Amino acid sequence: MTDRITIRRPDDWHVHLRDGAMLALIARHTARQFARAIIMPNLTPPVTTAEAARAYRDRILAALPNDAGFTPLMTCYLTDQADADAIAAAHEEGVFTACKLYPAHATTNSAQGVTDIFALAPVLERMQAIGMPLLIHGEVTDKSIDIFDREAVFIDRILRRLVSDFPALKIVLEHITTAEAAQYVAEAPANVAATITPQHLLINRNAIFDGGIRPHAYCLPVAKRETHRLAVRKAAVSGSPKFFLGTDSAPHVVEAKESSCGCAGIFNAPFALESYLRAFDEDGALQHFEAFTSENGARFYGLPLNEGTVTLERVEIRVPDRIGDDALSVVPFHAGETIGWRMVD
Ligand code: DOR
Ligand code: ZN
Hints:
By secondary structure, the protein is α/β, with parallel strands linked by helices. It has helices spanning 20-33, 50-62, 84-92, 121-130, 150-165, 179-187, 199-202, 226-237, 254-257, 272-282, 289-301, and strands at 4-8, 11-15, 36-39, 71-77, 96-101, 134-136, 171-173, 192-196, 243-245, 309-314, 323-324, 329-330, 341-344. The strands form 3 sheets. Strands 2-3-4-5-6-7-8-9 form an 8-stranded parallel β-sheet. Strands 1-10-13 form a 3-stranded antiparallel β-sheet, covered by helices on one side.
């Protein structure tokens, strides 16, 4: 049995670091495990300009120790007003690594998202030309579509057409949760990839209703039935270069989760690598762990692999019930449980 594993320092290709006091509380957990991260732009107001992205990047760096060795990779929140020239200029300058498509009203702070992605054809054409990735929250928002079907319907109604209209556009279908998504991405051309969260490898939708309603197991896209979890997990541990790590760590203060209308989002940053490693270990796929955490994403984005390593060891450590203090606290994924692994400092 392997009790210790050392891998090239990994990256998180999808994370919410928030702002203000929350940023100050949580950023170090991501910077501890990852060298770089793709930073989600769904702040209030959303990050839609290069100026806002530069300022946010500075706030992230200011929230970390000087020697954190962490690079935030910023994204542009697409709106119906997105401008191809401004986006291309910010990409050229190195401010925007990618653009994020939130279908309007799909999730937290997406009200200013896109109402018709095909109306943004000039932006998508430019992104395709300059090799700038489009990161997609892949759910339709049609209220008549069952919440558990929204990802599969998005693939059929939107994604297939996007891939055919923009055949060279780099697309990341974010946080996939279904067998349909895993199969679609596996069979799509090499410029279409997907990120996978730890929660979608480890929980199915029963976790949200386990003996009562469990707000800390609720995120979007919502966890699906067991057959889907198994399909997503098979894709993650397969060794395919199309699938890579993106935690979607999305903290909300405990009061916002434990509420009559609890926010979507699972805060998995403090033990993210441990969660993923548990899945790879259980599936006898440790030989594919490093590619998933530290190689596939960088190669897809066309960025160099990181220098340095991180080590995890097999050890039973209890995940704390809360991160933070009375003024601001967040319940982490696996709160009160043991995962079986811990990253060594
Ligand atoms: O669960 C989620 N939380 N899904 C998202 O798409 C957004 C995120 C958030 O920002 O809280
Ligand atoms: Zn997200």
